[in-house]
Amino acid sequence: MITQEILSQLLEQTQEIAKEVGAFIRKERQHFDVEKVEHKGFNDLVSYVDKEAERQIVEKLSVIFPEAGFITEEGTNTSQGETYNWVIDPLDGTTNFIHGIPVFAVSIALMENAEVIMGVVYEVNRHECFYAMKGGGAFCNDTRIRVSQAPDLSASLIATGFPYYNFDLIDRYLNSMKSLMQKSHGLRRMGSAAVDLCYVASGRTEGFFEYNLNSYDVAAGVILVQEAGGSVTDFAGGDDFVFGRNIVASNAKIHGEFLEVLGQFWDGVILKENTK
């Protein structure tokens, strides 16, 4: 098992890797050619930048912790470990990146069995490095971060992500939005689940919900919210939020009310990640 000392060292090394790869992504954006975009599926976009960024991350992480396997978005390495696995989204917010909207991030998490024990999210354009490890608190650029103290939804700003494929559940989603719009300060859509979770952790928003996500979208952000004093569950209030394809994160104070609203529209809906 990894000691806290080793985990702390891995956290520092992972931050540097995320920043190095973030610099590569930032440089590539300056002369990015949209004609080089590929389609993995309907509205599911990928570029050579995603693929090269992931290759760099996997190569570097393999050096600092060779015992761990990988769960990656672009499939650079698909060898999963028995106990430890890196969960990587090399460019969370690819659509933003392609269109030149400056909200995208490098997301790297380390899982021990079914638990996230370390996470790093580097927001490329704002040069903000969010990081946390189990039992160590959450930070942004060496400053401790904590969730907000808003007491209820009426004092809260909520983030979400719009579905861009698989629209079978779109009515449930739109009804959820409608209800939350009427009960909160409003909704925001940044275009990166990793960034959304970091903003909950740092108190910029009070809550975040989304469905149809994958583990690499949320794993790093999950521990940031938890270590910043927030709550993370699936829509049903359970703990299947990494692989369960739906997530609710909040400052903890609004979590029950948040789940109550979502429960009106999502009760009984089950979404699972295919790659678990």
Low-pLDDT runs: none
Counted beta strands? 14
Shape: globular
Strand order of the largest sheet: 3-4-5-6-7-8-9
Structural class: alpha+beta
Largest sheet: 7 strands, mixed
Q: What's the alpha carbon Rg, rounded to whole Å? A: 17 Å
Q: What share of the residues lie within helices?
A: 25-40%
Structural overview:
This protein has 276 residues and is α+β, with helices and mostly antiparallel strands. The chain has helices at 4-29, 48-64, 94-99, 170-183, 193-201, 215-227, 255-266, and strands at residues 38-41, 44-46, 69-72, 84-92, 105-112, 115-123, 128-133, 138-140, 143-145, 157-160, 186-188, 207-211, 231-233, 246-250. Strand 10, helix 4 (170-183) and strand 11 (186-188) form a beta-alpha-beta unit. Helix 5 runs parallel beside helix 6.
